[in-house]
Amino acid sequence: MSGFPRRSRRRHGFTLIELLVVIAIIAVLLALLLPAVQKVREAANRMKCANNQKQLGLALHNYHDAHGKLPPGSAQGPLAEAGITQANVGHGWALFILHEIDQDNLAKLYYWDKPASGWENQPVRTVPLDIMQCPSVPGQPRYAFNLGPYADGRYAACGDYAPTFGVDSILVMQGLIARPPTNDYRGVLVPEQMTRLQDITDGTSYTILLTEDAGRPQLWWAGKPVPDKTTLGGAWGAPVSGFYVQGSNYDGTGPWGRCAINCTNDHEVYSFHPGGANAVFADGSVHFLKADMSIQVLAALATRAGGEVVSASDY
Question: How far apart are CA 201 and CA 183, in angstroms?
Fold first, then answer.
């Protein structure tokens, strides 16, 4: 036995250079994979956002079937046809369709004779609703708090969808759009009014009901949050959630500029989707509005009876 040479036992492992090469390969693979994962995630978020708006459009149609008219974009009251007898109550459009979006329990808790922002209605407005939130928006769920001299502890859960009340006529004065042939700047869900589908003479397939105005109350300009700045209308039940199309400058400042989409969420069309924003039209269809859409086309889509001619290829 002693005459046989001993076999040396060597441990085989990675050298430092081999280990660094493996780590580098893994890092490259992750770098290649991450954008694909993010792209897939955003595609899913955009689809979920579009489905939210599809369901909201269906809910608004169901409301119309039950009441013969769509709800108002907001109602300070009194508004007899909507069953509101009190003044200075400030109800937002979404509160009218709580039954239609399967929120019967919230509907039972809501006091129509009290201000929407009052203490009595805190149990309703503080509830985050998934159907009102775009999953691409960071920081969900979000809340808007009373600020300034009225910082009394009241707050409300936020949403990302808003009606286009109409078009600001100053855009015509500034030469940014042509005057509507009928001189009618009103949208579909307008303040203090209830619209019938037959009032949409521009065609339900060419008229926006709701679109994205996402990320509020944080103010965003061209994809970046503006430090220490907020904007009104973030709460899903707020009467000021809708807006009149004004456009903005391309850096987000404004109003009254040529940028129609994704330049500011200060009461304009704004989303966190690359390349555009979702909108549900009066016929219930959902379309992705291209970020490079002109302010003229957006204004035409926002009016219900302006008489403008728009083709599907324009958006």
Answer: 13
The pLDDT of residue 22: 78
Tell me if 261 sits within 8 A of 247, measured CB to CB. no
CA-CA distance, 305 to 211, in Å (whole number)?
Answer: 18
| Separation of alpha carbons 192 and 198, rounded Å | 18
Q: Running DSSP on this structure, what letter comes out for residue 191?
A: B
- Quick one: tokens of 237? 């039940």
Residue type (1 letter), 80: A
pTM of the model: 0.87
Give 230-242 pLDDT, tens digit per residue: 999 999 999 999 9
- The amino acid sitting at 70 is L
As given in the structure block, the two tokens for residue 31 are 């770098």
Tokens of 253: 């400042």
72: closest CA among 93, 86, 56? 93
Q: How far apart are CA 60 and CA 205, in angstroms?
A: 15
| Percent with pLDDT over 90 in the chain | 75
pLDDT, residue 13, reads: 61
pLDDT of 152 > 80? The answer is no
How many CB atoms within 10 Å of residue 172?
Answer: 16
Contact yes or no for 248/269 (Cβ under 8 A): no
Rounded alpha-carbon distances, angstroms, from residue 121 to 83, 114, 140, 238, 269: 17, 8, 22, 12, 28
Residue type, 151: A
**b/e per residue, 183-209, with b = 16+ CB within 10 A?**
eebbbbbbbebbbebebbebebebbbb
Nearest to 142 by CA among 122, 153, 156: 156
Cα 37 to Cα 64: distance, rounded to the nearest angstrom: 41
pLDDT digits (tens, 9 = 90+) for 14-71: 677 777 777 888 888 777 776 766 778 999 999 999 999 999 999 999 999 999 999 9
